[in-house]
Specification:
two-stranded antiparallel sheet, elongated
Length: 105
């Protein structure tokens, strides 16, 4: 074969390999993004809140079960002033201050 033909076929084959490699790389690195109602873009499986308090994931509205409010249940409060610690009344006792240079006896 002629050397010119070999060089031409080598350049064509090399160019085709580079083209296919870049095409595969771009396909793998492409991540799915979703545009929210606020115009921001979000990645796949990322949850986001809108200004009206709705939750979205992958561009779909999520619904959460919320517990019912039992208003007949009164919260139990056993906190009195006797049970709270009185740290504000604590005063340091038997405090010995070190003079400069005398640290350990």
């Amino acid at each position: 074969m002629n050397n010119k033909i070999k060089i031409a076929l080598g350049l064509i084959a090399g160019g085709a390999l580079i083209y296919l490699g870049r095409k595969i790389k771009n396909r793998e690195s492409k991540s799915e993004t979703f545009t929210g109602e606020d115009g921001n873009t979000y990645k796949k499986d990322e949850m986001y809140f809108t200004s009206d308090g709705k939750v979205y994931k992958n561009g779909k509205l999520l619904h959460f079960k919320t517990p019912e409010n039992n208003e007949d249940v009164v919260p139990k409060t056993n906190v009195t002033s006797e049970t709270l610690p009185k740290n504000y009344d604590a005063k340091p006792k038997n405090v010995e201050y070190h003079h400069k240079g005398v640290r350990h006896h």
